[in-house]
Every structure is written in C-alpha cells, then in structure tokens.
Design goal:
Length: 57
C-alpha cells in the first residue's frame, strides 16, 4: 500500500510550517543565555524551557 499525498495539502502544510513559527514583526525570538532569567520568564508566561547543551572542543 502506497501513501499518496495531495499536492495542495502538502504545499499548505509546508507554508504553515514556515509561516506560523515566525515571531510577530518587531519582536525577538525570545532566546536567553541565562538559565535563571529564562526560568523566571517561563514561570511568568507559562511557557516551557528548551535547553541546549553543547560540547565544543
């Protein structure tokens, strides 16, 4: 059984994936480099925190 996707639905989904995550004009993305400050903002706004751990050599 093969899955066939309607081209119109696929293009609509792609457009939504590109447009919807963009922040409103004049606003920053909201990234923080201080975990304590990010926790304060997350508590006030009720949003989760996304933490990225990197290793650099």
């Amino acid at each position: 059984m093969s899955l066939r996707i309607c081209p119109a639905i696929a293009s609509l989904a792609l457009a939504a994936a590109v447009v919807l995550p963009l922040p409103a004009l004049g606003q920053t993305a909201g990234w923080h480099s201080n975990l304590n400050r990010a926790a304060e903002v997350a508590t006030k706004t009720g949003k989760p925190i996304f933490v990225v751990f990197r290793c650099e050599r």
